[in-house]
Amino acid sequence: REYLAALAGEPVGGERGELPSGGATVLAVRAVREALAGRVHRASELLARADLASSTVASDLAVAVAGVVVTRRSEDAPASIRPFVARIGALVAANGITSPLALLPDEDREAVLAEAERPDQAEALRAVFARYAAHAIGPGVTVELTGRERAVLEQLARTPSRTELAERLHVSVNTIKTQLRTMYRKLGVGDRDAALLRAVELGLLELGSDGPAAARAGETAGEVRAGSGATGGADR
């Protein structure tokens, strides 16, 4: 429930460790979205909360990525992105976790490469960027989901269990696996957490009175205009 609150933008604690698993990453994604929409003050607040709550390598990297995006849109850019770039380089080199880098828009990727401490670090990051198309966040980015896929997405926000998903939607586990693979491919992601984050970025999830509801159910969405990411592990 707390995880869903974080996705929807509700307050979910203020100290390191109080957020649910993935909560710091969600806040970092929201900070990126706010910064790209021109709401830099709000983005800075979300970034501070994400940094305070981060407790994993993946969320630390997401926070550093958000730091680049937010800082480059503040009055202190571009010199002040250097600490975030150093943090990104160190985390990628030491841990090999790279997927949060998909949040960086193309123009911010160029700035990161320009601020890299060493040529080898820049080349390593350039290779990572080549593997991940930038996830567009903001107006005009749409993904077309069927009614069944929207139902799966809504239930996916409530449970990670494929068995429970099958029971709730009255289909077989194999059918759920197939539907998840198709939905993940459309969203350009490879697992549940990434799918939920992507759905929030695109405005496909909202928090209603009984939990998240798939938004825009009656709308005709356009083609996917965001870049595709890894699709491995779609059964997770």
Topology:
Blueprint: H1 2-8, H2 23-36, H3 40-53, H4 57-72, H5 82-95, H6 106-115, H7 119-131, H8 147-156, H9 162-169, H10 173-187, H11 192-201, E1 205-208, E2 211-214
Antiparallel strand pairs: 1-2
Indicate the structural class. mainly alpha
Major pleated sheet: 2 strands, antiparallel
User: How do the SSEs run, as a string of H and E?
Assistant: HHHHHHHHHHHEE
Tally the helices: 11
Chain oligomer state: single chain
* Lateral arrangement of strands in the main beta sheet: 1-2
Shape: elongated
Query: How much helix, percentage-wise, in residues?
Result: 55-70%
Low-confidence stretches: 1-21, 207-236
Instruction: Give the terminus-to-terminus CA distance.
Output: 20 Å
Beta-strand level of the residues, as a percent range? under 5%
Total beta strand runs: 2
**Rounded average pLDDT:** 75
Radius of gyration (CA) equals 18 Å
Distinctive features:
236 residues, mainly alpha, two-stranded antiparallel ribbon, 11 helices, 2 strands, 56% helix, elongated, disordered N terminus
Structure, explained:
The chain is mainly α and 236 residues long. It is 56% helix and 3% strand. A two-stranded antiparallel sheet has the order 1-2. Helix 3 (40-53) runs antiparallel to helix 4 and helix 9 (162-169) crosses helix 10. The longest helix is centred in the first third of the chain and has 16 residues, at 57-72. Mean pLDDT is 75; it is low at 1-21 and 207-236.
What is the structure about, briefly put?
The protein is mainly alpha-helical. The protein has helices spanning 2-8, 23-36, 40-53, 57-72, 82-95, 106-115, 119-131, 147-156, 162-169, 173-187, 192-201, and strands at residues 205-208, 211-214. Helices cover 56% and strands 3% of the residues.
